[in-house]
Amino acid sequence: MIFETLFIGLIIAVIYVEIMDIYPGGIIVPAYVALYLDEPLRVLATILIALLSLYAYRVLSRFLILFGKRRFVMLVLLGGLWVQIWFIISPSFFADPLGLRAIGWIIPGLLANNLEKQKILPTLASMFIVAVITYFIVSLVGIIL
Fold first, then answer.
1. What is the pTM of this model?
2. Long-range Cβ contacts of 83-86 (<8 Å, 24+ apart)
3. What is the rounded average pLDDT of the residues 116-121?
4. Is 97 a domain residue?
5. How crowded is residue 17: how many other Cβ atoms within 10 Å of its Cβ?
6. Which of 47, 105, 136, 143 is the most exposed place for a label (fewest CB within 10 A)?
7. What is the domain range of residue 93?
8. What pLDDT, in 10s, does the model give residues 11-36?
9. Angle (CA) 61 66 68, round 5°
């Protein structure tokens, strides 16, 4: 059901962006969050890493010229760096390190990029709305099939 979740999540996110004009943390982010809604610590870790990346970016932007592509790349790199630090500090916190890396390398950077473009509360609220809708639609499709 991973492919179906990602596909349905993409569709729901695009519809949400068209209706609300708010990105839910990126187009693919809510779909990945929906995959891990049954593991709230991974979702929380992803959000914390995104926030750490955002604040590290804000500090670095005082000394470096970071905008456009540079901002995006810096946020993705910072997300990856924080994931590695997080994983080294608390390896027993996550049962499946590969799963954390799958959600952790790209997703926190995408989320941090949208947190930088938009306000934090609307972005996170939108992400959870789209993720929960995706989760329930995928569950419904799983029951029907």
1. 0.86
2. 83/49, 83/108, 86/45, 86/48, 86/49
3. 93
4. yes
5. 15
6. 143
7. 46-139
8. 999 999 999 999 999 899 999 999 99
9. 140
